[in-house]
Amino acid sequence: MAAIAVVAVVLLVGRNRALGAKRREIEAALGQQLRTSEGQLAVTQSELRRVMDEQDSTVKAAEESSEDSTKAVLKGAARFLQSLAAEQMALLEEIQRKYGGHSVLGDLLEVNHANAQMARKAQGIAVMCGAPIGRRSRPASVYDVVRSAQGQIRNFRRVEIMQQTGFALKASAVSPVALAVAELLDNAASFSQSDAPIEVTFQHVQNNLCIVIDDAGVSMNDEERQKATALLSGDVSPRLSQLGNQPKFGFPVIGLLARQYGFKVDVTGVSRYGGVRAVVLLPEELWTMEEAPPVEEAPVRDIRQAEGRSQNSGRTVHGLPKRGSRQTPLVNVSQRNAARPASRTPDEAARATGRSLGAFQRGAISGRNLDSAPFEGAEDT
Questions:
Q1: Spatial separation of the C-alpha atoms in residues 209 and 261, rounded to whole Å
Q2: Coil, helix or strand for 253?
Q3: Parallel, antiparallel, or unpaired for β 198-205 and 159-161?
Q4: DSSP code for 316
Q5: Are 177 and 282 in contact (CB under 8 A)?
Q6: Where would I find the H helices in 99-170?
Q7: Residues 29-81 pLDDT 10s
Q8: Model confidence pLDDT, tens digit, residues 45-58
């Protein structure tokens, strides 16, 4: 029995050894297959990444090509619209000069005002598509620049410039700042009630000049502020296809102008009316002190004649001083509109409308185009 047990033990040991060797062979084969599969998987993954990168590059190139093509088409359309707007504005201004006292002047100025809005939209689209903005040849008063921007929006009568300023924008900054302020004013008017005020003030803070726009519209939430801040910084330039079916060019255009010309725009503040406070911050490189116009010296003979006339007109026949006439204080557009009589003839109403709209066309640069260069011949600054 002991011999049988020994033989059984020997057989079991030999069988276990054989099974262990077989198992090790199978494990080695499986390990080799696993390593081979892992190597093939790595190669496949690498190839897949290469294909995906090529696909992404192809898609990105196609999107950029499509974006460039779309921008080229829109740029051409914007140039055509700007050219038509410039021709129409020149024609209307010539008609206004020719028929300045006619009752149709109010209607002509309404047409010119609509034409100025169209020109601003076309200019914004052109800037969004990479076109250079027109360049002025001389500085312009900050006050006149804001008045020009005011004249390029639909509800211009709601805008009140609360103060004068002795600062002027340098020539290179006039056109971009005017367009940016016009877009901000239009945005303020669009998101507030039709009778709500829009106030513009100026502040000189350290070496910066600030144009502050306060509206009484709807305030923005945190998400809207973050999105607006990103767009206005110029760091985020959305594609045209990302602007929606009714594209809003305002903030993207302002962001591009701010990045190109070195000023900043912030809309995170709250106005005293509970609406939005927009601040255009202009560094000292973009502005200067406004120069007083030179006074031409009159000949001595003319001075003596003028003094003689003033002496004669300032005295009665008995040599007593005459009573001076009362001076009428200056009022802004909104004050004139509020002071209008209730009943007017059609001719008087048309002339009044003409005077209110014509306020944006008088003076050297108070016209809506700020005497900027034509678009097709404009050079980048």
A1: 15
A2: helix
A3: parallel
A4: -
A5: yes
A6: 105-128, 142-150
A7: 888 888 888 888 888 888 888 888 888 888 777 767 766 766 676 767 777 67
A8: 888 888 888 888 88
- Which two tokens mark 21? 């060797």
Q: Give the span between the Cα atoms of 171 and 59, in whole angstroms.
A: 42
Put the strands of the sheet holding 198-205 in their side by side order. 159-161, 198-205, 208-215, 276-282, 264-270
Q: Quick one: CA torsion of 324, 326, 327, 329, rounded to 10 degrees?
A: 160
Distance CA 271, CA 25 (A): 81
Distance, CA of 159 to CA of 201 (rounded, Å): 11
Helix (H, G, I), strand (E, B) or coil at 226: helix
How far is residue 79's CA from residue 378's CA, in Å, rounded to a whole number?
11
In order of 27, 30, 46, the CA distances from 42 in angstroms are 22, 18, 6
206 Ramachandran zone, left/alpha/beta (phi>0; psi -120 to 50): left
Phi, psi angles (nearest 5°) of residue 97? -65, -35
Cβ count near 111 (within 10 Å): 15
Q: What are phi and psi of 30, to 5 degrees?
A: -65, -40
Q: Is 371 left (phi over 0), alpha (psi -120 to 50) or beta?
A: left
* 3 state SS of 184: helix
Residues sharing a CB contact under 8 Å with residue 103, sequence separation 6 or more, in sequence order = 346, 347, 350, 351
The answer to whether residues 203 and 213 touch, using CB atoms and an 8 Å cutoff, is no
Phi-psi region of 184 (alpha: psi -120 to 50; beta: other; left: phi over 0): alpha
pTM for the structure as a whole:
0.62
